[in-house]
Amino acid sequence: MPLILVSNDDGVFAPGIEALVEAVSPLGDVIVVAPDTERSGSSHAITFHTHLRVGQVKKPQTNWWRVSGTPVDCVYVGLHHLCPTKPDLVVSGINAGYNLGTDVFYSGTVGAAAEARIQGVPALAASANRGVPPRVAIPAVRRVATAMLKANDLSLININVPRPPGLTDEATEAEIDEAAAALPLEVTRLGQRKYKNHVEARKDPMGRTYYWIGGPPLETDHAAGDDTYAVTHGIVAVTPLELDITGADPSVAQRLLDA
User: Fold this and answer.
1) Measured in Å, how far apart are the chain's first and last C-alpha atoms?
2) 237 φ/ψ angles, rounded to the nearest 5 degrees
3) CATH number of the domain that residue 224 is part of
4) Which DSSP string do the residues of 105-168 spell out, in sequence order?
5) What is the pLDDT of residues 81-130, one digit of tens each?
6) Closest listed residue to residue 211, CA positions, set 219, 199, 227
7) What's the pTM?
8) Minimal CA–CA distance to 91: which of 68, 67, 117, 65?
9) 159 lies in which domain range?
10) What is the 8-class DSSP label of residue 61?
């Protein structure tokens, strides 16, 4: 049986990781290593200057572990300490909210998957539209994960799952599963994801100032083929990612040296 390492950035007790385990459990043996608290937005942060603590979470039929660090810490500890053998696949998510376009540079969900890829293990990051049950991503995750295990390529894939058309907040689990299974999948590229730039000064109960950064997403034009375009049209965006972010045009840097 393949060995699958599961992680996330929403924390080991987040509903999304339960759905992710359900998605991949039929495909192999599963071990869960996830942060003990939410670590959203931690990108590819790794802990070098403080200790990490690892503890077992009591779950039936599978190994669940919590780590006092980042998603990248979890994958690193999982790969090199907790997994009995090298995993065949790492899956991260299911994140509560999209990781589209430039979100991938901030996302702890994608950071966990990227660390697996750096360590030589194919990896899948999965996110679903905020406010929908995370199980809407189960069919897409299972389909892509199955294909990745069969292909045995050293790939890094990011998928984003929209709300199925007509799905209501009162939908039963069976209705959610039926609607999710009908969602089409499309291979996409990273689109544009823009936010309102904002720093808000607030007061804590002791009267001391603290700051809250970041604002809501802004309306952005999306082009066909973008992951942002796909999800707005009810399509699961399946985006291959690369670790090499070298600029495609070396003449830009050469002009600087020649100036």
Assistant:
1) 58
2) -85, 125
3) 3.40.1210.10
4) GT-HHHHHHHHHHHTT--EEEEEE-TTS-GGGGHHHHHHHHHHHHHH----EEEEEEPPPTT--
5) 999 999 999 999 999 999 999 999 999 999 999 999 999 999 999 999 99
6) 199
7) 0.92
8) 117
9) 3-258
10) T
